Amino acid sequence: MKSIILLSFIICTTFHICAFATDTWREPIDVISKEGQLCITDGSSIYTFKKDGTFELRPVGMSGREIKGIWKTKKDNSALMEITGQWIWMNGEFSPNDFRKMVLAIYPLSGEKEKVGLSNTEVYKCYFVIEELSKGPSASITSTNDVSAIHSPP
Question: Does residue 141 sit within a domain?
Answer without folding.
Answer: yes
